[in-house]
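Example for tutorial group B:
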């Protein structure tokens, strides 16, 4: 995995630490830690999954104290089993215990996304379909959530509204319900490097769009496998085909077998379950 630069991650982690420390700092650790007391701890998986977010965890500790040593044993993208040590964290007790919750919050959440993504990727193995996330991300966390999808073997859809043109049902309504007009207006505005995708939810709408031309990709929304198969045949390689709408690990294999290029899965980022990871005390350092 190519890591995201700390420049992008630090503001998120810093905000998390400031929120957690409040005005008085870590009262519990301050009361119990001896002056200069050092700890050796480990981030340990409690469940099977895929690792993502170690840079966020590292920053949660090193922003508390730059002297903390963070040694990665299973880097982002690694598959882990219960009991596997992901990283060892050694340093002053206040820094480790003060940064613990923020580190685990980011790490568990991103590992959960990577793990869920890997499950869908496994489900469609043997087909040409790629698994993509969407813009259904938590505000402020899009870059790291989409990074976690990549760690799980998935791919990213557009990051922002200015990445590409995606004409959805409300945009078609805005254009008077005329697919051809919507495509023509989008093509007239788009730069030469800007792709245009059109959402369709019926085969008739797809046929209109194909006659109008101008789309680089079609978002085939909430279609049945039979409809998807027919849609892929209609497009016949002239554009990218993307299936979306309630795709699960159980339904993904049948959908991928229709020949679509992309499976678009929004819940990978907006309702995923965190992976259970703990910070275990190993010894006084």
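The residue assignment follows.
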């Amino acid at each position: 995995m190519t890591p995201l630069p700390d420049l992008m991650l630090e503001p998120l982690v810093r905000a998390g630490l400031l929120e957690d420390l409040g005005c008085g700092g870590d009262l519990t650790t301050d009361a119990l830690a001896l002056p200069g007391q050092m700890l050796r701890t480990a981030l340990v998986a409690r469940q099977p999954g895929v690792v993502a977010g170690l840079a966020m965890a590292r920053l949660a500790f090193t922003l508390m104290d730059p002297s903390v040593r963070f040694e990665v044993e299973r880097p982002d993208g690694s598959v882990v089993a219960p009991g596997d040590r992901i990283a060892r964290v050694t340093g002053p007790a206040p820094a480790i215990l003060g940064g613990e919750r923020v580190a685990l919050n980011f790490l568990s959440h991103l590992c959960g996304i990577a793990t869920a993504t890997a499950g869908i990727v496994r489900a469609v193995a043997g087909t040409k379909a790629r698994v993509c996330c969407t813009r259904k991300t938590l505000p402020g966390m899009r870059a790291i959530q989409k990074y976690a999808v990549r760690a799980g073997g998935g791919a990213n859809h557009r990051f922002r509204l200015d990445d590409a043109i995606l004409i959805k049902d409300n945009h078609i309504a805005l254009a008077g319900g005329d697919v051809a007009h919507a495509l023509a207006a989008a093509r007239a505005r788009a730069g030469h490097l800007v792709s245009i995708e059109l959402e369709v939810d019926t085969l008739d709408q797809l046929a209109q769009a194909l006659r109008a031309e101008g789309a680089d990709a079609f978002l085939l929304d909430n279609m049945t496998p039979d409809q998807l198969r027919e849609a892929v045949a209609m497009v016949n390689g002239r554009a990218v085909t993307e299936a979306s709408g309630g795709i699960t690990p159980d339904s993904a294999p049948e959908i991928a077998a229709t020949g679509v290029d992309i499976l678009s899965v929004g819940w990978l980022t907006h309702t995923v379950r965190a992976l259970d990871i703990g910070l275990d005390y190993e010894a006084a350092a």
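The two ends are 31 Å apart (CA to CA). Compare this with the pattern of hydrophobic and polar residues in the output above.
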